[in-house]
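ok trying again, last paste got cut off:
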Amino acid sequence: MTSSRLEAFSDGVLAVIITVMVLELHVPHGDSVQALWDATGVGLLTYLLSFVYVGIYWSNHHHMFQVAEHVDGAVLWANLHLLFWLSLFPFSTAWVDESGVARTPAVVYGVNLLAAAVAYYLLQLAIFRTTGGDRLRSALGGDWKGKLSPVFYLSGIGLAFVEPWLAEVCYVAVAMIWLVPDRRVERYLAAERGGSTG
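nice, full thing came through this time. structure:
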């Protein structure tokens, strides 16, 4: 099977996730920055962080399926597993916001981020097992970002028991790591095209 339907479905789900998250923001009752802060509190910041995470997953998902040649049932279910955890972002984001970054919501948000990262890794493994899966394995290489991210999530979850804002610092750090453009797949595809024309 080709991945076009899986990609289209995933794109739609991610678009809905972003839409649901933005609907949680409250419109200010005034025209000042203070009115904005009073209406949204940390909501705008938590929305921004979660929006960046959804964007990172969307971008990496897109790159991954540029390399994946085949999709089978295991890949479809692994993709749904990833979408399940991503679909919980609006809930965990809203809880962090409404609690004013309290301990339990910060832990749950970290668990949500960690579970999405694990689900993404399982999706990669499912693609590795398909025909042509070595292409993705070659394109990703050592994947230091993918290995480092869960360490930060676990650190954030632990730090939430000390000070919830420290957990958020860990979660922001992971987002910053991934915001640096990851060109592994693009370089792989460019090298592949260059090799096929030479």
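cool. The mean pLDDT is 91. Residues 103-128 form the longest helix (26 residues).
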